[in-house]
Amino acid sequence: MYSNADSLLNKKQQLEFLLNCITVKPQIIALTEVNYKNKDVKYDVHELCIHGYVMYHNIQNNSERGVAIHVSSDLDSIFVESAFQEPEFVFIEIEVKKVNTLP
C-alpha cells in the first residue's frame, strides 16, 4: 500500500480505521510526506507507528517532509539506509520465504 500522506499524524486515525476494516492487511505500507508542511508543529516520531507494523523512516526532525515504511511484524525486515535530503529515501531488506502455491 502506498500513499502520499501529506502529514500523517492528522490522518493516522483514518489509516488505522481503514486497516481495521479490511480483511487482507497490506504487508507493507509506504508513506511519503509524513511531516507537517508547517515546520513549527512538533511531535514524537513514535506517534507515527502503527500497531502490528515495524516502522522504518528517515525522520530526524521535521525539517523535511519525510518517508516512512511500515512493514508487517510478521515479516523479517531490517533497515539498510536512508537520506533526509533531496531525494528523500528509505531502503530496507525484507526476507521473503518460499511459499507453496496452488497450480
Task: Map the helices and strands.
Elements: E1 2-4, H1 12-21, E2 28-32, E3 53-57, E4 67-72, E5 76-83, E6 89-95
Parallel strand pairs: 1-2
Antiparallel strand pairs: 2-4, 3-4, 5-6
Structural features, described:
The chain is mainly beta and 103 residues long. The chain has a single domain, classed as Endonuclease/exonuclease/phosphatase (Deoxyribonuclease I, Chain A), CATH 3.60.10. It is 10% helix and 33% strand. It has one helix and six strands. A four-stranded mixed beta sheet has the order 1-2-4-3, with no helix packed on it. A hairpin with a 5-residue loop joins strand 5 and strand 6. The longest helix has 10 residues.
Q: What descriptors fit this protein?
A:
single chain; 103 residues; mainly beta; Deoxyribonuclease I, Chain A; 1 helix; 10% helix; 33% strand
Identify the CATH architecture: 4-Layer Sandwich
Helix and strand string, N-terminal first? Answer: EHEEEEE
CATH structural class: Alpha Beta
The rounded Rg comes to: 15 Å
- State the strand order across the main sheet: 1-2-4-3
Report the count of strand segments: 6
The share of residues in extended strands comes to 25-35%
Task: For the record, give the distance between the C-alpha atoms at the N and C termini, rounded to a whole number.
Answer: 26 Å
Brief summary of the model shown:
The chain contains 1 helix and 6 strands. With 103 residues, the protein is mainly beta.
